[in-house]
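Can't paste images in this forum, so I'm doing it all in text. The chain is below; anyone willing to post the predicted structure tokens underneath?
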Amino acid sequence: MILLNNEIKAYLMIGGSDEAPVWGDLGKAFKSVTQSLGESKYTASYLADGGFSSSEVTGLSFQLTLTGDYIKKDPVIKYIFSENVVYGVGEARKSKLKLVRDGTEIQWGVTLTKISEDGGDANEPDEVTLELSGNGRPTVSAAE
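Text version of the structure:
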């Protein structure tokens, strides 16, 4: 059985606090999602390996890239393109991501990066792109 992208639920913390977060549904304005765990890799060739190398993954860098439409009344779009976030740096760009997929819930502190309003053809919606970069280790649990 395959996992369809429309079965992945993604939410961005758009208000509240860690104890009582307000989650905005990323699926209301975004149409495409790409996830990656950029790996830091250490490779070594030891004398006893006869010229062959061995590798170890020594770190991970989570990235979630979303593309969609600028929907004016969508709470997540309003949050991302608020003056504080889109023109902000440091803490203004920090939030939390909640991903629910295949029976698992992942919560990750993230930084909002590569926020862009891409425009498009006259008869098409205004396109938007957002990249979420993970901060530290996520919390992984069974989805409720």
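Helices lie at 75-80, 83-86. The domain at 5-142 is CATH 2.30.110 (Pnp Oxidase; Chain A).
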